[in-house]
Design brief:
It is built from 4 helices and 7 strands. The chain is of the alpha+beta class. The chain has one domain (28-158).
Length: 160
């Protein structure tokens, strides 16, 4: 009886570790980042193995990538070729370190004191970086942008 209980605890631990590893691997990899250029968007498509749809508006293009797992990542690229905003929605959150690029450390520092609860929305509105995100299991949404990089005539509400 003691052997069976020990063996059961071992299998429980193995199952928990395997589940955690699976969740870690299921984050959507992205290599384009806030402040990056249009070439980083193209490498994103290959890295995510995603389909891409490009739509244009006055002053910018939106490169929307849809990964096989169902998450959509939209990268907002100015006419000068710079990524000034990103947005996402779907069952998995993208890798924020890759999506935010050089802004990731600023995000981490700001987020330390902002988080309310496990599922509480996170809103960061600092000089040089705005991040808004929320979600729960199988449904995550968010956006990030650099206000100073918004092309003329583009409003923050356009990043969605």
């Amino acid at each position: 009886m003691k052997f069976m209980k020990c063996n059961q605890n071992l299998w429980t631990r193995v199952a928990l570790i395997a589940a955690a590893a699976l969740l870690f691997m299921m984050t959507i990899p992205a290599s384009a980042s806030l402040g990056g250029d249009v070439a980083s968007v193209q490498s994103d498509q290959a890295h995510m193995k995603a389909t891409v749809r490009v739509s244009g508006d006055i002053g910018y293009n939106v490169h929307e990538m849809k990964a096989a797992g169902g998450t959509a990542v939209r990268e907002y690229v100015s006419n000068t070729g710079q990524v000034f905003g990103v947005a996402w929605d779907g069952p998995f959150r993208p890798n924020l370190q890759q999506v935010l690029g050089n802004y990731y450390n600023q995000f981490l520092n700001a987020a330390k004191n902002k988080r309310g609860g496990h599922n509480a929305p996170l809103v960061i509105n600092e000089r040089g970086l705005v991040v808004q995100m929320s979600g729960h299991q199988r449904h995550f949404v968010g956006r990030a942008y650099v206000p100073q990089m918004l092309p003329q005539g583009v409003q923050a509400a356009d990043i969605k």
